[in-house]
Amino acid sequence: MLKRSKAAGTIAAVLAASGIYMSGCSLLPDKQPEKIDPHQSVSLKDGTKTAAKAKKGQVLTELYLIDKYGYVVPQTIALPESKSVAKQALEYLVQDGPVSNLLPNGFRAVLPANTQFTLDVKDKVAAVDFSDDFKGYKAADEKKIMESITWTLTQFDSIQKVNLKMNGKALKAMPVAGTPINEDGLTRAVGINTDIDQVADITNTHSVTVYYLAQTGDKEYYVPVTKRVPDKMSDDVEAAVEELVNGPSPSSRLVSGFMDDVKLLNKPEIQAGKVTLNFNKEILGSLDQKMISNEVLKPLVLTLTEQKGIKSVAVEVDGSKKLVTEDGKPLSEPVTRPEKVNTGSF
């Protein structure tokens, strides 16, 4: 079922344990970080014995780390309860810091060792003021650091935008390679793991973020990738599905579970936060069982619930809702985003 990129390496043809539980709640905790009740983060079941779980006195938090292929990837890790979960999340992005003994195999923290900072959150804007140690990174990591900071902080409802400073002075560009920083601040619109390899001209294009699969050892995880699509594709749901079908760049180490002949039979319907998709039968992992595989369903839900206003995904095939998941469970109800992404421990 899996369609690998031409240079994808040795990723297994069947990825079994996928590391997320599709009936979770919202990705985002409530309100200001200082007021979040850490007990709102509950243990997540993901079908494996190695899922990240929050014990008493811990809270599950997504840290955007760098994997061995250079992708910025969310990894859910149980951290100690804190009155300021946003500040703590950044502290766990520092190399040789408290995250050292918690890093999944093949992953590394993104901020230079010994980096100090202050964090102030006001009106959904997080102002991060770094010490001089912040500029101790390699130029090749610059955009990845911007993406990691932005996506880690904006997982919280209280933060929609990030402003960067160093020694009290606002940064107009990153300090090593000079990557410009939007004067209005950083949001998820900056993208993540941006892939323009197959785009001849980005003029008259816009971005959508889709999730592909990667593998380290025998463990699989989901990687968000921002793709550029033509402006004439005004429906971002259709554009995202098309990019899932197109698959990742041939030069990537990622794979897609969508076959080339998967198609939408109707325009997506969005109502009250639910998007309904009617596919042809080629989306089925088993025609006889009317089964949608995990490698199709999970990236589809992660991808579409990344878009504003979409909370759940309902799947039909040739107009029928009589479908089952890979575990044999009925797929008659819409599927919501998991509370956290990539909860499997490595």
From TrEMBL:
Signal peptide: none annotated. Residues 326-340 have a biased composition (Basic and acidic residues). Residues 86-175, 237-326 form the GerMN domain. Pfam families: Germane (PF10646). Residues 326-346 are annotated as: Disordered. InterPro entries: GerMN. It comes from the Bacteria. This is Spore germination protein GerM. It comes from Weizmannia acidilactici. The gene is gerM.
